[in-house]
Request: fold
Amino acid sequence: MTIYDITRTVTPEIAVWPGDQHYSVKLSASLEQGDSVNLTTLVLSPHTGSHADAAFHTEHGGTHPAAEKLDAFLGIARVVTVSKRDGALLPSDFPEGSLEGVQRLLIHSHVSDSPDERWPDVFPYLSEILIQQFAEQGGLLIGLDSPSVDAFDSKALHCHHALRRCGLFNLETLCLAGVPDGDYELIALPLKLDLACASPVRAILRTL
Ligand SMILES: [Zn+2]
Reply:
């Protein structure tokens, strides 16, 4: 069995959404200073690195990670590579038959080749037609290596809203470099955070 770690490494240098909080770590107790432990306090946006958005991110009164159902984040998933570098992904952008019967779809684009520290200037994102078609076939989750399911400059966030409307979950900022296309077991559970609008995940794929 092979495990692929498809999680971005969270460091103070990791690229975050322009204007969002950078990750930082403060030592509040230190072995070097004579304390009995090292104790750290973290400051981060829950959208740092690989993460799952919660409904509260885009919906008034939406649920927080602690209350999200977990079945979407655990189970058989398919990795599919797309060649589109920018713009909305339509069903026709995927290889023939590659989406059939898929419940968890992980989309591998050029963005996975970007280092953790570099914000991708262009990235592919979802479309409402892709989301709707995927939901109709019993889909549960769509994960991307892109930092958003919508265009960078989108204010309406049609794809975020379409995902919620269709009962789908998403993962963003995965890193699928070196993962061959195919079916795997996905494990990417959000932390049980109340009040937050998203949660970091440790996303892994296990070969079947
Ligand atoms: Zn997000």
Q: What stands out?
A: The first helix runs from residue 128 to 136.
